[in-house]
From TrEMBL:
Entry keyword Nucleus: yes
Organism: Agaricus bisporus var. burnettii (strain JB137-S8 / ATCC MYA-4627 / FGSC 10392)
Positions of the UniProt region annotated as Disordered: 1-54
Key words of the record: Nucleus
Record protein name field: YDG domain-containing protein
High-level lineage: Eukaryota, Fungi, Dikarya, Basidiomycota, Agaricomycotina
YDG domain mapped to chain residues: 53-206
An example Gene Ontology biological process: protein ubiquitination
Gene Ontology cellular-component annotations: nucleus
Pfam family of the protein (one): SAD_SRA
Molecular function terms, GO-annotated: ubiquitin protein ligase activity
Length: 221
C-alpha cells in the first residue's frame, strides 16, 4: 500500500529531526542550557576563577597599577569587594573561608599597625562607591564575606593582604596596590564603631619568615 502525501511529509520531518540530533524538546533544552553557559563557553564566557589559600605566584612587595591587574595576577580576584572568599563547601571550594583582603581606606574603623591589622568587615555603608567611609547601620557577622573571614579563625588558613594608595596608613603605598604577604586571622569581635554602629573587627597578624614591611616601604611607592 502506497503512502499518501501526509505520511511522506511526516517521514521526512522525522528524518530531519534525527539529522539535527534529537527532538524539538531536546533541542529547546540544549538551546536554553547553551544560553546559560552550561554547554559552551565562548570568547566572552570564561569559567569562574577558583579561590585558593596561600601565596600567589608573584613575590611579596609586587606592585599593581590597578585592582584589575591585581585580579589578573590572582592575588585578589574581586574588582570592588574588599574580601574575597567562599562560605559554602563545594567541589571548587572544598575548604570555605576568606582567601584575600584589600586594605584601602574603605572603613573608618580600620587600624593598620603593619604586622597587625584590625580589619573592618563588610556592610553597613550606603553603597560601595560612596565617597565617605562612615557607617550608617550595623554590620552583620552573618554577612557572607564576614562569615568567610571568621571561618579562617577556626581553620587557620592565611589570607593574602593587599594595601592600596587610598589608605592613610603609613604602611600603604603612595600609588597603586601592593601585595604585602600572608596574615592569619587571630581574633574576631563585634564592637561599637566610630559612627555609633556595630562593626565586625578581625585581628590579622602577619606570618613570620616574609620580607619585612620596612624593606617594602624603603624602596617602593
Amino acid at each position: 500500500m502506497s503512502s499518501g502525501p501526509g505520511q511522506r511529509f511526516s517521514l521526512i520531518r522525522r528524518e530531519i529531526k534525527a539529522s539535527r540530533g534529537g527532538s524539538d524538546a531536546t533541542r529547546r533544552s540544549e538551546s536554553a542550557a547553551t544560553r546559560q553557559g552550561f554547554l559552551t563557553i565562548g570568547p566572552k564566557k570564561r569559567p569562574p576563577r577558583e579561590g585558593y589559600y596561600g601565596p600567589p605566584k608573584c613575590p611579596v612587595g609586587t606592585m599593581f597599577a590597578s585592582r584589575k591587574e591585581c585580579s589578573e595576577a590572582g592575588v585578589h580576584f574581586p574588582l570592588v569587594a574588599g574580601i574575597s572568599g567562599s562560605t559554602s563547601s563545594t567541589r571548587r571550594d572544598a575548604n570555605p573561608g576568606a582567601f584575600s583582603i584589600v586594605l584601602n581606606g574603605g572603613y573608618e574603623d580600620d587600624v593598620d599597625d603593619g604586622n597587625t591589622i584590625l580589619y573592618t568587615g563588610a556592610g553597613g555603608q550606603t553603597n560601595t562607591f560612596s565617597k565617605t567611609n562612615s557607617q550608617v547601620e550595623n554590620q552583620d557577622i552573618k554577612h557572607h564575606f564576614n562569615h568567610a573571614l571568621r571561618l579562617n579563625l577556626y581553620s587557620g588558613n592565611p589570607v593574602r593582604v593587599v594595601r592600596g594608595f587610598k589608605s592613610e596608613s603609613r604602611w600603604a603605598p603612595s600609588e597603586g596596590y601592593r601585595y604585602d604577604g600572608l596574615y592569619k586571622v587571630a581574633g574576631a569581635k563585634i564592637k561599637l564603631g566610630k559612627s555609633g554602629h556595630q562593626v565586625c573587627l578581625f585581628r590579622l597578624e602577619r606570618l613570620p619568615d616574609q620580607q619585612p614591611l620596612e624593606e617594602l616601604q624603603s624602596h617602593l611607592p
